[in-house]
Design goal:
One of its GO terms (cellular component) is plasma membrane. With 484 residues, the chain is mainly alpha-helical. The protein has helices spanning 2-16, 34-49, 53-56, 58-66, 84-95, 98-111, 114-139, 154-162, 181-213, 217-232, 237-263, 268-280, 282-286, 290-305, 313-316, 324-351, 355-358, 363-375, 377-410, 414-433, 437-483; strands at residues 18-23, 29-33, 142-143, 150-151. Helix 18 crosses helix 19 (377-410). It starts with a helix and ends with a helix.
C-alpha cells in the first residue's frame, strides 16, 4: 500500500509540481508545471486558430444558451436525450465545486489579489480549448443503447483517430471489440480521478456540516450517500436533478455576491485596483512574489475550468443538436461561467473584507470569516449549504461522465455501470468519515493523465472542429441574409 501511495504522489508531483523554473527580477522565479506547459500553449493555439472565439463570438455563445430549443434540440430525458443546455448544466455541475470556494481562497492567499487576473486570462484562453474538445465529442458521438440518446467523449474520438474512423461512423453505438490503448488509458484515468474526487467530496461536506451545525460526520455522510444512491442508481434521474440544483446553487451564490458588491460599492474600485496592480505589480517583483501571483492564478484557473482535461466532452457528446459547433459554444460558455463568474464571486466576497479580519487564517476559515463579516451567523450556515450543493452536484456530474468511459472499457452492460456507481458511493462514504490526503493526489493524477492523453489527439483532430466552426458561421451569415 505504501508503494502505491508513493507512486501516486510521485506521478502527481511530476504532473503538477514545478518542472521548470524561470528566474525573475527580485529573486523570484516562475515555476512551470507540466500541466501549465501543456495547457497554456494549447489554449493560446486554439484561441488563435478560432480567431479569438471567446471574444469574437461571445454574443453568439450567449445567444445559443438563451434561444428556445426547437425540435430535437429540446431533448427528451425519458429517452435519454439531452439538449445542449442540459449538457452545459451537467458539465457546470462538475466544474463548479470545491475549487470555486476553497481553491480560489487558497490562490489569493498564496498569490495575492493579482492571482484573480491570471485566473481570468486562463479562462479566456481555456474557452477555445473547451470549444474544440466539445465539438470533437459531438462529431464522434455514438448512440447509447443502455441509457438512450448519445454518448462519447475523448475515449471515442481518440479511438476514431487511431483507427482512421471518420466523424459519424459506427453511430449505431456498438463498442468495437478492438480497442485503442490510449483511449483505454484515458478512460481509466477518468475513472481513477472521479473515484478520488468522490472521497474529497464526502470529506468536504461532512467537515462543513460539522463546523456549521455540529452534525457528526457519520450522520451527514450517511444522508449524503443515501440521497446520492437514490439518484445515481436510477436510469435518468441524474440529469433531472442537476437541471434543478445547478441553476439554483449558481444563482444563489451569484445573487449573494451581487448583494455584497452593491453593499460595498464604494470599495469596488479599490478591489479592482488591487487585482490589476498586484497582477503586474513592481512590488511583487521586488518582493520576489511575482511568480507566485501568476502561477497560483493560472493553476487555479486550469484546475477549476477543466478545459483540455477531457471531462466536459463526456457530457457534450450526449447533446442532441442540429450542429456540433453549437455544443462547442455551450461548453466555451461553461468555462466563462465557472471561472469568470463563480470563481470571481468567491474572490470578491474575500477581497471586500478588511485584510486585518482574515490575516493568519487559511482555507475554509477565510471564506467562513468573510461570509460572517458580510452576513453575520447566516454566512457560515450559507457556506455550509452552498458547499453541500456544489459538492453533491459535482458527484452526480462525475458519475454522468463515467458512463461513456465505463462503456468503452467494459462494453454495454448494466453490471459494470452499476459496479462503478457502487464503488463511487463507497468512496463517498469513506471520505466523509476520514480525510486521506492521497485521494487529493489521486484526483490530481487522474485529471493530469486525462489531459495528456486528450491533448495527444486534440491537436491533429482540431481541424475537424475548426471546419465545423467555419460551417456554423457560414450558416449564421446565410440565416442573417435571409432575415434581411
Amino acid at each position: 500500500m505504501a508503494l502505491i501511495v508513493s507512486m501516486i504522489e510521485a506521478v502527481t508531483g511530476f504532473l503538477w509540481g514545478d518542472l521548470v523554473k524561470i528566474p525573475l527580477p527580485g529573486g523570484s522565479s516562475l515555476g512551470l508545471s507540466l500541466m501549465v506547459i501543456l495547457l497554456i500553449p494549447a489554449g493560446i493555439y486554439y484561441t488563435i486558430r478560432t480567431k479569438f472565439l471567446p471574444i469574437r463570438l461571445f454574443s453568439e455563445m450567449v445567444a445559443v444558451i438563451l434561444e428556445k430549443p426547437q425540435g430535437k434540440e429540446k431533448g427528451d430525458l425519458k429517452k435519454g436525450k439531452l439538449s445542449g443546455l442540459q449538457t452545459l448544466i451537467v458539465s457546470t455541475a462538475t466544474r463548479v465545486g470545491m475549487g470555486n470556494l476553497v481553491g480560489v481562497v487558497a490562490a489569493i492567499s498564496a498569490g495575492g489579489a493579482g492571482a484573480v487576473f491570471w485566473m481570468w486570462i486562463t479562462a479566456l484562453i481555456g474557452s477555445s480549448t473547451a470549444f474544440v474538445e466539445a465539438t470533437l465529442a459531438q462529431l464522434h458521438k455514438r448512440k447509447d443503447p443502455l441509457y438512450g440518446g448519445f454518448r462519447g467523449g475523448p475515449a471515442y474520438y481518440i479511438h476514431d483517430f487511431f483507427f482512421k474512423k471518420a466523424p459519424g461512423e459506427e453511430l449505431n453505438g456498438e463498442i468495437p471489440k478492438k480497442k485503442n490503448i490510449i483511449a483505454i488509458l484515458f478512460a481509466l484515468s477518468g475513472l481513477i480521478c472521479w473515484g478520488g474526487i468522490s472521497q474529497v467530496i464526502g470529506n468536504s461536506v461532512s467537515s462543513a456540516f460539522e463546523n456549521a451545525f455540529s452534525v457528526k460526520p457519520i450522520i451527514s455522510t450517511a444522508i449524503l450517500v443515501l440521497l446520492a444512491a437514490v439518484i445515481v442508481l436510477r436510469k435518468h434521474a441524474t440529469a433531472r436533478v442537476l437541471d434543478v440544483i445547478v441553476p439554483v446553487m449558481a444563482g444563489l451564490y451569484f445573487a449573494l455576491t451581487v448583494f455584497v458588491i452593491l453593499r460595498n460599492i464604494t470599495s469596488l474600485p479599490t478591489v479592482f485596483q488591487r487585482i490589476f496592480s498586484e497582477a503586474f505589480g513592481l512590488r511583487q517583483m521586488v518582493a520576489g512574489g511575482f511568480g507566485a501571483v501568476v502561477m497560483n492564478g493560472v493553476k487555479r484557473g486550469l484546475f477549476s475550468n477543466e478545459a483540455g482535461s477531457g471531462s466536459a466532452p463526456c457530457a457534450a457528446a450526449a447533446a442532441d443538436t442540429d450542429h456540433p459547433a453549437k455544443i462547442g459554444l455551450f461548453q466555451a460558455m461553461g468555462v466563462f461561467i465557472d471561472t469568470i463568474v463563480i470563481c470571481s464571486c468567491t474572490a470578491f466576497i474575500m477581497l471586500l473584507v478588511p485584510e486585518e479580519q482574515i490575516v493568519n487564517l487559511q482555507g475554509m476559515d477565510i471564506l467562513q470569516t468573510a461570509m460572517a463579516y458580510h452576513f453575520g451567523s447566516f454566512g457560515k450556515i450559507f457556506i455550509a449549504i452552498i458547499l453541500w450543493l456544489f459538492s453533491f452536484s459535482t458527484f452526480l456530474g462525475i458519475l454522468f461522465y463515467a458512463r461513456s468511459n465505463i462503456s468503452y472499457i467494459f462494453g454495454d452492460n448494466w453490471a459494470s455501470q452499476t459496479g462503478y456507481k457502487i464503488f463511487a458511493l463507497i468512496m463517498l462514504f469513506v471520505g466523509g468519515l476520514a480525510q486521506y490526503t492521497v485521494v487529493w493526489d489521486m484526483g490530481d493524477m487522474g485529471v493530469g493523465l486525462m489531459t495528456i492523453f486528450n491533448l495527444i489527439v486534440m491537436y491533429p483532430l482540431s481541424r475537424e472542429a475548426l471546419a465545423a466552426l467555419k460551417d456554423y458561421e457560414e450558416r449564421l451569415k446565410e440565416e442573417r441574409k435571409e432575415k434581411n
